[in-house]
Amino acid sequence: MAARQGADALGFVFYPPSSRAVDPSQANEIVSALPPFVTSVALFVDPSESEVERVLRALPVDLLQFHGDESPVFCGQFDRPYIKAVRMRPAVDLEQLAQDYSQAQALLLDAYRHGVAGGTGETFSWSRVPQNFSMPIVLAGGLTADNVGDAIKQVRPYAVDVSGGVEATKGIKDLAKMAAFMRGVNSAKID
Questions:
Q1: What is the spatial distance between Cα 179 and Cα 85, in angstroms, rounded to a whole number?
Q2: Deepest of 22, 78, 123, 176, by most Cβ within 10 A of its Cβ?
Q3: Average pLDDT in the 122-150 region?
Q4: Total domain count for the chain?
Q5: Secondary structure of the chain as H, E, C letters
Q6: Are 14 and 55 in contact (CB under 8 A)?
Q7: What is the CATH number of the domain that holds 180?
Q8: How far is CA 98 from CA 17, 41, 55, 167, in A?
Q9: Taking the CB of residue 57, how many other CB atoms lie within 10 A of it?
Q10: Residue 70 near residue 46 (C-beta atoms within 8 A)
């Protein structure tokens, strides 16, 4: 359903505490049905090396997304492109993180709530994202059909990431919300 609405990538959460978590066989069922040019993304939070390797053996993953405290060395060891998520804590230094994670395809900027790895449904102040940042930004955190156009106009990210903003209930996506979100993305006019 997401691909038919125009999604460029689908994320699969391999973090058991999440209500959105899937196992490799569930994800494989969906990945095998994806049309060409839709990227499959495996999302992890502080996994062990063996956890990532287990998923990679079971699933044809295009991209890895790390949401914990994984080091650049850890993220880069799997022979796959990766994105590093950054929870926008008050004193976060994005330029330093861009240097530290220079091998990442992008930094994904998400809202920060103490003790929560992501998926809060909250936004952060988009004015904190530097203009002309040194690497691609994927904007996440509290995005919905109602605010994604404004987010794109203000931040000018490479991409946006949504989960809760298109759900009927935690972990269950809603076709009407996905369609509305994609209309919001597509209607954002950038000069």
A1: 25
A2: 22
A3: 93
A4: 1
A5: CHHHHCCCEEEEECCCCCCCECCHHHHHHHHCCCCCCCEEEEEECCCCHHHHHHHHHHCCCCEEEECCCCCHHHHHHHCCCEEEEEECCCCCCHHHHHHHCCCCCEEEEECCECCECCCCCCCCCHHHCCCCCCCCEEECCCCCCCCHHHHHHHHCCCEECCCHHHEEECCEECHHHHHHHHHHHHHCCCC
A6: yes
A7: 3.20.20.70
A8: 28, 21, 27, 31
A9: 8
A10: yes
**Residue 171: what pLDDT?**
83
pLDDT in tens, 173-189: 999 999 999 999 999 86
Residue 52 has phi, psi (to 5 degrees) of -65, -45
What's residue 190's pLDDT?
66
C-beta separation of 75 from 104 below 8 A: yes
- What domain range includes position 139? 2-187
Residue 116: pLDDT over 70: no
To the question of pTM greater than 0.70 for the whole model, the response is: yes
Between the CA of residue 66 and those of 1, 49, 90, 94, what are the distances in Å? 25, 12, 20, 16
Does residue 56 surpass a pLDDT of 70?
A: yes
